[in-house]
Design a protein that fits this description.
Blueprint (H helix, E strand, L loop, with lengths): L3 H9 L3 H4 L14 H11 L30 H6 L9 H22 L16 E4 L6 H5 L5 H13 L4 E2 L3 H7 L10 E2 L12 H4 L9 H6 L3 H4 L8 H25 L4 H17 L6 E5 L26 E5 L3 H17 L3 H6 L18 E6 L5 H22 L13 E7 L2 E9 L4 E10 L4 H30 L19
Helix pairs in contact: 7-17, 12-13, 13-17
């Protein structure tokens, strides 16, 4: 009969070469120390193979008395054997599970983003298709009437650079362009600079008339620098000089951003935002731009595929919107509150309080008119087009839920200008509502930030877009959301007329 000590030594799995030389430790004959067993079992687990019946290969033991078959089964192996299958430590457990958790997270992200290319946009329930502009007069037939005049105004600027320079500082412009003197058509008329340009009639009734230099020089406070110059006696000249020096500063910073490979956020802060602010400074505050990098698409407004999958929410960088008059703001707020009250869930009720597809506070009630996506440092243009496509499709879905279009039965939503920026280059697209699909027509290069003539051209086009937002788009927003006592809304979409 084997003694208990021999059985315990076999359980601990000591190598044969150490059994005769190492003195046995003083242990409790009934229960072996747990820590001793775990440390020894870990070190010997690589040398032993455990079978279903408890046999062990211990390196070819010459002592037949060490076999467990020669004695009755003992309780300690049954109670401690499962520990040999456990991970040796909690630290190792964390490492072994990390790949699985990372894989789960990656799988979740993949499942939430079924649209990976602009080709995938064609599988949305309201497909988004990118189309090239036909060219020439065919573009006017391809584009709807609501952007027809805008296209007619933009095309001479992008093709011949008509009216991009201020005539008040013509000598200074020509001194920098000695090799290529601009023609007379390149200078805009002086009377166009005498006050806030193209101020829409709708905006005139809202904001009180301000002093001539007020809103512009709030952004370009350089008037005092030119006050003592005889050639800068008039406000128009001082304004043109202030604009000129700001353009030269943007040119310098833009070149630095490209040379230093600065991030997209740096471009947005130091180049794109100042450029947009300069372009809209003549709108007297009636058109505003918002940094939309934090404007996530709400889940209920994300466009779905025909298969039922929901696309990932894509954000853009900037949004141009009309500043609402008090009456239009109240009317939009009233309609949103009515829809929120009628919502069947708390999440949808909260989402209904936003007129756009996002809950970003600055965009809660002012419909977005122009969306801008920026890409720098070799980023993919494909990704930029994808972001603009999903963002636009989400806006259409939101409008459809508001009952103002966006579906196959109309009425058609307004054509939305989209801008894609890649390093210095700015390109314009038109998102056309065809009821059963969205056609994004473009691209039309509108300017660059690498030289001051290109920046002047870009500013001119952005100014024309500001005029379109302040007039055509504002008229649509007023007709769609404004108080209309003579129209009874559809009871299935809106509860009743908005309060006057």
């Amino acid at each position: 009969m084997l003694d208990d000590f021999a059985i315990r030594r076999w359980i601990l799995g000591l190598p044969d070469g150490q059994r005769g030389s190492r003195h046995p430790r003083e242990t409790d004959k009934n229960t072996p120390p747990t820590s001793s067993f775990q440390s020894r079992s870990q070190s010997s687990s690589k040398k032993r193979k455990v079978g279903h019946d408890g046999d062990q290969d211990n390196g070819g033991s010459k002592d037949p008395g060490t076999s467990p078959r020669s004695g009755p089964p003992s309780q300690p192996p049954l109670s401690i054997r499962p520990a040999s299958f456990h991970p040796p430590s909690s630290t190792d457990l964390g490492h072994s599970s990390a790949p699985s958790l990372a894989s789960d997270r990656q799988s979740s992200r993949r499942s939430a983003s079924p649209v990976k290319t602009i080709t995938g946009l064609q599988r949305l329930d309201k497909p988004v298709l990118y189309r090239s502009l036909d060219g020439g007069k065919a573009n006017l037939q391809q584009l709807p009437k609501d952007v027809g005049q805008l296209y007619r105004d933009v095309l001479p600027v992008t093709t011949y650079r008509v009216g991009i320079y201020p005539s008040e500082i013509r000598p200074r412009i020509e001194s920098l362009l000695e090799d290529l003197t601009p023609p007379d058509s390149a200078y805009r008329k002086s009377e166009e600079d005498t006050r806030c340009l193209g101020r829409g009639r709708l905006a005139q009734d809202v904001w009180e008339e301000e002093e001539e230099e007020g809103p512009f020089f709030d952004y370009l406070p350089l008037s005092s620098l030119f006050a003592d110059r005889p050639e800068a006696a008039s406000p128009q000249v001082r304004r043109a000089l202030a604009e000129f020096y700001k353009i030269r500063a943007i040119e310098r910073v833009a070149r630095e951003c490209l040379d230093l490979r600065r991030s997209e956020a740096a471009w947005n802060a130091h180049v794109h935002a100042p450029l947009l602010e300069l372009a809209l400074s003549r709108r007297c505050g009636s058109v505003v731009y918002e940094n939309a990098t934090s404007a996530r698409i709400l889940p209920c407004f994300r466009p779905s595929l025909v298969t039922g999958e929901v696309s990932e929410g894509k954000m853009v960088d900037f949004v141009l919107s009309p500043r609402l008059s008090p009456g239009l703001d109240v009317a939009i707020q009233g309609r949103l509150i009515e829809l929120s009250i009628r919502a069947k869930s708390a999440a949808l009720a909260s989402a209904q309080l936003n007129v756009n597809q996002t809950d970003y506070t600055p965009l809660m009630r002012s419909p977005s008119a122009v969306s801008i996506e920026t890409k720098v440092a070799g980023a993919s243009l494909e990704e930029g087009r994808l972001q603009l496509g999903i963002w636009t499709a989400a806006w259409h879905k939101r409008m459809d839920m508001l009952g103002v279009g966006g579906g196959m039965h109309g009425p058609a939503l307004p054509t939305l200008p989209l801008i894609l920026v890649h390093d210095h280059q700015w390109s314009l697209y038109f998102a056309v509502d065809r009821l059963d699909r969205i056609e994004v027509c473009g691209a039309l290069p509108i300017g660059m930030t690498d030289s001051f003539p290109n920046i002047y051209q870009l500013l001119t086009v952005l100014g024309l877009l500001g005029t379109w937002v302040d007039t055509t788009f504002r008229s649509w927003a007023t007709d769609t959301f404004g108080p209309r006592p003579d129209v009874i809304a559809d009871a299935d979409v809106l509860s009743n007329d908005l309060p006057q």
